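Exercise 7. Given the components listed, write out the predicted structure of the assembled complex. Treat all entries as one system.
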Amino acid sequence: MAEDGSDPLPELKPFFSRAGGKIFIIWLAMTAVGVLVGIYAPHHLLPTMLSTQGTKVWQTIVLFTILAAPVAAFVYAVGLYSLLGWKARGFGKSDEPPPDGPSLRGDAPMTALWVGVSAVLVIILLVWGLGEFTAEQTTHADTLEVNVTGQQWLWTFTYPDAGNVASRSLVLPVNRPVQFNVTSVDVTHGFWPAALGVQVDANPNTVTVIQATPDKLGGFTVRCSQLCGLYHSLMYASGSVVTPQKFDAWLRGHGAPVGKAAEAADVKASS
Amino acid sequence: MADTPEPGGAGPSSEPPASGIPESPTSGASAAPEVRKPRSVGLILTVVMAAAALAGVALFFHSQYYRSPSGTLVATPAGTVTVNGRTLQHVNLAFNTYPDSTGMVNGKPIHPSGNPAWPAYGPTNQFQVPAHALVTVTVRQYDSGGTLNNPFFATVRGTVGDVARVNGKLVHSIDPNNVGHTFTVRGVPGTDPGFFLNVPFPLVPGDSQTDNGKYETVTFSFVSGSKGTYAWNCEFPCGTGLDSFGGPMSAFGFMSGFIHVV
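Answer.
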């Protein structure tokens, strides 16, 4: 009902029926754009996912974007049409402000539709999220433990199952679950190997556990996701997922940098 | 869309104000006509002010871009050398670590805004070396120290042979409980991301000062990476607060800096 007690809907229905088609077309176009962004943008914005968790993160981003596209498009479509089609005429030519529109109430079908769609979307997201979260908690017998230590402004990795081999780079075998035991020796850092689809804070005096299963060979970067001081922007480490054979050989080499052997001490002065 | 009526069907201002508030006497017909500025003036002013604000932000960040107060130390050429069959340019670099950043080196303060309780590298914290060259570094470590919070950095890594010489003695690592400072270099995006160098320096027992003549001499060699700017810092918690990573550890010009590889 309008504030003056009259029902504005009959008076407004011609406007909505006339605008509805245009809003629908705008909504349809923006929904299509949103869906395409959801499908293709991750290819340009996300790294190549190298783990099952990373793939799930990718799928979640795509699904959620596609589900959100029609909702966001509806808001934008109505807003855009209102901005262009219903803008106040002659603004600035008079001291009189444009009149407020009527207060709309009592459109039960529209309210039910809005609440229903929102509820269905939220339930889908909840079920999906809980399913993925539960899958993360599964432990495996052959899990490889890696202790991750953050400090200003470097990451170091040790492998307790292999005699505490320590390394500046994170090397992982493919198709073997990995458990990261993450901590910090100074301030809070953020352990973020984005290509593995995991991210967790590295807190001092606390060990936080997170798991990932690399399932593709390749290189990736470990970044810090918490603003941690002077060289935060430079706090990263290189990582790689290698075959089990290469991983074992790397461990036997005590964690020497992959692909770059340390210079031997064979130095001769030429001049 | 020009024929689209306004929502609510409100017409021109012939109707009385809905609020019921009486109109101001100054809005009557007898009032002097108001001189209104053209809208283009407002637009131009808005654009100019926005441009000025953006320029201010850019100037601020430019002024904040770090420049060493003590200049850049350029490595001195030392002929050529063969490393694993490769002939490389050989250069030397010498710098020190001091417990008091207000001290003087070669007649200049180690840091122009130093603090006697803050250690610092000197004579500068910015170095320049050629790309893909053998760089031999000599460090005099004048500072006391303590225990590393991560023993990883007690091991020499990334030097030729993964070794260094401490007072002439070849070492692969030092006692993590007796560390003065470390010289830890890493590649940054745009350079050689895999580059990593870590050399720990043993502490000088006691609360040594620059002028007491006590120091540890550490020498090591490494092969420089591709051209670019590499970051280095000390990994011994020699600062203040924040688990000793505050103060000189969190301010430019003391225990961190850059290596420019040209």
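Discussion: DSSP finds four helices and eleven strands in chain A. The CA atoms of residues 62 and 73 of chain A lie 16 Å apart.
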